[in-house]
């Protein structure tokens, strides 16, 4: 399958004679030529794992480089530091053959030849040759409409983002929501899926959280028993889950599966009587079960995660002639965009700006959280030759880290947002150096010292305080609910725009100051987003706007050359002028639109997506021979 076929890299190392030798600080193998096969190369192999492997297999050439760098710096006691630097780059005696169907920017940069894969076996080719199934051929989307009401007299001010998440959680876990979706899924499985693949077809339910998986498992079993259907389900999630509906009650995967051990679950699910597997962050990658035919999705998916999750269905079977996806959450256009990136083979986009590494370092240095003397002393202990290491080194390194931990804790107490911004910059430096040092031969030992110091400091920093947590079970209730099918058919990958794999552009993760709104206002905003359909006059007005937009030449050109997110920037500017031109046709709607920024955002995204899809289809048809 294409998950195991994709970009690979093969260098041609010069010949080396085996050279026996000993390094006083690290075990190693004799210098030989090594071919390293890396499966699922988009994962951690692009980081420290591959680097450590290079250190073990690098041989005499790696030791020679480290010794030369130590002598040049005039500090032979830190040869282990320079060996750590030298092992990050390409090694002349090693060839990497990396396989993946879903490469990231880092994957192509590290394992590719100048960012290009050595060989491609694309998703398109694999589907055409019937090596994998086309998982987007039968795709049904549902939309949930609902209205919440505030039943409590109090109307407290709440932090908008946190409270909105709590209301979304309230809705997703609401028994009526889970009950209605369970009925749709079980009835679909009973009357459609179970007859597929010679009557052996299985299904996976992808949930948004571990607690949702628990609630769905309970509702599935209740509904199946009530109906008397011959379906048995299993659930997969990690750890222990608490449900606030039943205090002091906890749930585990093993307990909910009747004692089936975690490692036994794949083999148990393969048995004929088990037909449905409900998952929360498990079995969404790498799970190989050819009898999987249908996937029910109740979780937001995007990018590589969407491709990997839905690809659980792509395994072939002699009796399998199609697959089916029923999606309660995601926009088909976004799923199409995610798959288009890999359909004909991913390509490199914008490179990571190497200068960002020094920018972030300068900001970290200037913060005062750590001192350069502490970094230097930590490195001297950490990279000391084995002959100079002692049992007290661990205590000494922790003491050096504790100074920075104390300063960070003081900042966290006085300005938590600023502390989290600093933590984000620490992680940005760690990730940037971990990646760039494998493609750029840095000679700056201060970078390696800081990388090593921060890698250990990150583990000791106090966690972010959760702040206000909201539970709205007593304040809010569900007033209206409707589940409606909105689209059905194939998601074509011959249309649309394939985004290149751009390098990371973001540095740090600053926390925006929380906006406070009244609970009633927040409920109104959410109801405006999910409360139902427009009346006929409103719908006609929007249809006219969409038609006019599709005739706009600047939007036509923007749709040809831009991804959906960039198209939205152009569309937003044109949309306002189109509203003004037609204000007399629906003054009430025009007034609402111009006076409510949140409505402008929703309408822009909604109409922009419709217009972009229409223009993309038209552009694709025009370009056909």
From TrEMBL:
Restriction endonuclease type I HsdR second RecA-like helicase domain span: 273-318
Boundaries of every SWI2/SNF2 ATPase domain copy: 32-136
Region (Disordered): 1-32
InterPro entries xrefs: HsdR_RecA-like_helicase_dom_2, P-loop_NTPase, SWI2_SNF2
Pfam families hit by this protein: SWI2_SNF2, T1R_D3-like
Protein name according to UniProt: Type III restriction protein res subunit
């Amino acid at each position: 399958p294409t998950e195991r076929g994709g970009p690979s890299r093969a260098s041609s190392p010069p010949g080396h004679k085996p050279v026996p030798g000993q390094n006083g600080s690290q075990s190693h193998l004799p210098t030989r030529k090594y071919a390293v096969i890396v499966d699922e190369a988009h994962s951690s192999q692009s980081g420290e794992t591959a680097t450590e492997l290079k250190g073990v297999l690098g041989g005499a050439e790696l030791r020679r480089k480290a010794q030369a760098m130590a002598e040049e710096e005039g500090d032979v006691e830190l040869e282990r530091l320079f060996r750590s630097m030298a092992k990050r780059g390409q090694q002349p005696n090693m060839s990497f053959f990396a396989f993946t169907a879903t490469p990231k920017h880092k994957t192509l940069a590290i394992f590719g030849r100048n960012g290009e894969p050595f060989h491609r076996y694309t998703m398109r080719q694999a589907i055409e040759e019937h090596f994998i199934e086309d998982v987007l051929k039968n795709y049904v989307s549902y939309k949930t409409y609902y209205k919440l009401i505030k039943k409590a007299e109090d109307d407290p001010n709440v932090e908008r983002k946190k409270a909105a998440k709590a209301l979304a959680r309230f809705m997703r876990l609401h028994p009526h929501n889970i009950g209605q979706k369970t009925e749709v899924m079980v009835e679909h499985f009973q009357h459609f899926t179970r007859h597929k693949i010679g009557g052996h077809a299985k299904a996976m339910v992808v949930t948004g959280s571990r607690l949702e998986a628990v609630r769905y498992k309970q509702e599935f079993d209740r509904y199946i028993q009530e109906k008397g259907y011959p379906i048995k389900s299993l659930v997969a999630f990690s750890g222990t889950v608490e449900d606030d509906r039943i205090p002091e009650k906890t749930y585990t995967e093993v307990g909910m599966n009747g004692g089936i051990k975690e490692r036994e679950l794949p083999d148990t699910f393969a048995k004929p009587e088990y037909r449905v597997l409900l998952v929360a962050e498990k079995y969404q990658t790498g799970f190989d079960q050819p009898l999987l035919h249908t996937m029910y999705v109740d979780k937001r998916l995007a990018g590589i995660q969407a491709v990997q999750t839905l690809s659980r269905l792509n395994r072939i079977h002699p009796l399998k002639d199609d697959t089916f996806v029923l999606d309660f959450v995601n926009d088909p256009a976004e799923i199409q965009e995610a798959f288009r990136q890999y359909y004909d083979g991913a390509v490199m986009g914008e490179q990571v700006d190497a200068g960002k590494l020094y920018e972030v370092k300068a900001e970290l240095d200037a913060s005062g959280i750590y001192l350069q003397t502490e970094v230097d002393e930590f490195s001297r202990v950490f990279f000391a030759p084995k002959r100079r290491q002692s049992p007290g080194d661990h205590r000494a390194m922790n003491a050096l880290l504790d100074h920075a931990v104390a300063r960070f804790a003081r900042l966290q107490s006085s300005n938590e947002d600023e502390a989290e911004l600093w933590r984000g910059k620490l992680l940005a430096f760690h990730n940037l150096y971990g990646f760039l040092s494998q493609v750029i031969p840095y000679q700056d030992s201060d970078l390696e010292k800081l990388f090593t110091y921060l890698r250990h400091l990150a583990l000791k920093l106090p966690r972010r305080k959760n702040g206000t947590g909201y539970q709205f079970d007593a304040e809010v209730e569900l007033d209206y609910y409707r589940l409606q099918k909105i689209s059905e058919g194939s998601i074509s990958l011959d249309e649309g725009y394939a985004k290149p794999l751009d390098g990371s552009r973001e540095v740090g993760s600053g926390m925006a100051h929380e906006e406070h709104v009244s609970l009633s206002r927040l409920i109104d905003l959410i109801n405006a987003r999910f409360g139902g359909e427009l009346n006929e006059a409103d719908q006609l007005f929007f249809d006219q706007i969409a038609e006019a937009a599709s005739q706009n030449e600047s939007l036509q050109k923007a749709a040809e050359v831009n991804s959906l997110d960039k198209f939205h920037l152009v569309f937003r500017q044109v949309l306002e002028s189109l509203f003004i031109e037609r204000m007399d046709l629906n003054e009430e709607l025009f007034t609402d639109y111009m006076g409510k920024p949140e409505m402008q955002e929703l309408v822009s995204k909604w109409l922009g997506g419709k217009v972009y899809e229409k223009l993309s289809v038209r552009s694709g048809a025009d370009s056909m021979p």
